[in-house]
Amino acid sequence: MRVSIPTRDENGLEGIVEQHFGKAPTYTIIDTETDQVMVIPNTSEHMGGVGLPPEYLNQNGVDVMLCGGLGFKAVRMFESYGIKVFVGAGGTVRETFEAWKAGKLQNATAENSCSEHGNEEHHQH
Q1: Contact 85, 79 (CB under 8 A)
Q2: What digits encode the pLDDT tens for the residues 45-63?
Q3: Residue 24 covered by a domain
Q4: What gap in Å lies between CA 9 and CA 35, rounded to an integer?
Q5: Is the pLDDT of residue 125 over 60?
Q6: pLDDT tens digits, residue range 18-54?
Q7: If we measure between CA atoms, which residue out of 63, 57, 73, 55 comes closest to residue 110?
Q8: Eight-class DSSP state of 18
Q9: What is the pLDDT of residue 115?
Q10: What is the CATH number of the domain that holds 18?
Q11: 117 in a domain, yes or no?
């Protein structure tokens, strides 16, 4: 399984999680079977390239996306590619990945998606 986390840098597991997934300069991808860590540049249209992040990550074989929070449209787009999204990511890639493995991140749904991109509040159920 390939897990992707939006990141600000190319520091792999020690990289800092970027809260706005679309504007992340890089995406760090962890292969859970081989523990291989790969950092790819964000070449989506948000960064002057082509396509939207969900499409780009799908092309890179991503199965799961861990991020701080995202809007409903983005959740739906990831789902349309069969990519599961979890919210609540923060700190470093390693911290986020460990939190996800421990079941501490919430599965993103229409109910807990952010109405605004910059909104740091997450609704608790």
Answers
A1: yes
A2: 877 887 888 999 999 999 9
A3: yes
A4: 19
A5: no
A6: 988 888 999 999 999 999 999 999 998 877 887 888 9
A7: 73
A8: P
A9: 58
A10: 3.30.420.130
A11: no
- Enter the pTM of the model: 0.86
Q: Is the Cβ–Cβ distance between 84 and 65 less than 8 Å?
A: yes
List, in order, residues 6 or more apart from 112 with CB less than 8 Å away: 87, 106, 122, 123, 125
Residue found under tokens 């082509």: 50
The pLDDT value recorded for residue 69 is 87
* E strands, the chain, in order: 2-7, 26-31, 37-41, 64-67, 84-87, 106-107
Q: In terms of residue numbers, what domain contains 13? A: 2-49+57-64+73-107
The tokens of 74 are what? 């983005």
- Mean pLDDT over 105-121 rounds to 65
Q: Which residue reads 């948000």 in tokens?
A: 46
